[in-house]
Amino acid sequence: MQIYYSQQYRLKSVLLKILVLSCLLAIFMPIKQAKAEGQLTIYCSVQYRVCEKMTQIFGEKYHVDAKFVRNSTGSTLSKIKAESTKPQGDIWYGGTLEPHFQAAELGLLYPYRSPKQAETIPQLKSLLAKHGDYTSIGYMIVLGMGVNTEKFKQLGIKEYPKCWKDLLDPKFKDQVQMPDPRSSGTGYTFIATLVQLFGEDEAFRYLKALHKNISNYAQSGTETTNLSRGDAAVTVGFIHSYETEKEKGAPVKAILPCEGDSYSLGGISIIKGARNLKNAKLFMDWALSAEAQEIPWREERMYQIPTNIYAKASPNSVDPKTLHLINFDFDRFGSDEEGKRLTKKWLDEVKLK
Question: What GO molecular functions are on record for this protein (predicted)?
Fold first, then answer.
């Protein structure tokens, strides 16, 4: 007996076989990883763990083979200068803003005004209007002092310094550290802050007097860990770093000096001659987003203040509303000529005297 199948039945049977075959292929065929859409080399001047996390998340999100090279702000600027004829990096992320402006002045940056600048807090709009063709602003950091409370007990010092001028007290002899301004953006910001607060002549009289109490002009990033270890009683640095050390259990207290709150801003700039220009632009756009600006504190407990209007700041960050910010002159202190002049003056008249 012959059985005749309807055309509709035969079609359903064929479709069922195709579906089963597709499922088997999906199960037994090897799964291919998404290929990286190009590469990116990031010159990074924030904390190592933040560099690592930002690079990792960006690479995974956009399937980019991203890597980073971590150096202090001053050292990164020197590296970009040295490589100007054959750039090795694509984008410079982080570090104080003034060296980024110096790099732009020297023709070392590629012009790119990210559309994400529109989400920057209103207080920075005028600065971006002037300098945003080359550099965007990814975060704010506030300058201050950190003290090691256990070290103070050991030294028998009962009162913590309240003002910058308190650091000149002879009781702090060999107990103060500040970053070396030749390699550290933090150190340069400190000098620029003193010049703005006191005037240049008075600022350098202060630095000469402070030199008597300095035990070490630290390499960038080490002043905070040196304080945590008790190598110094007081160090000059950015407040968010002290908060991170305190959260780790170190006997560290952050202090905002009475003379007024100085600050710096974290720059993001594309390097002229970048070999991976498309991905460099993509990274800048992403780094300016609310999502990216929350990564340092959510993932790594680093408490710089976001500059994106939609980004949430950590409860452990300094509240900008409570600050008495000085009117920091980024145009003057972001000049390459002024930066070299002040650093050389410090070297000749303070450190080498």
Answer: thiamine binding; thiamine pyrophosphate binding
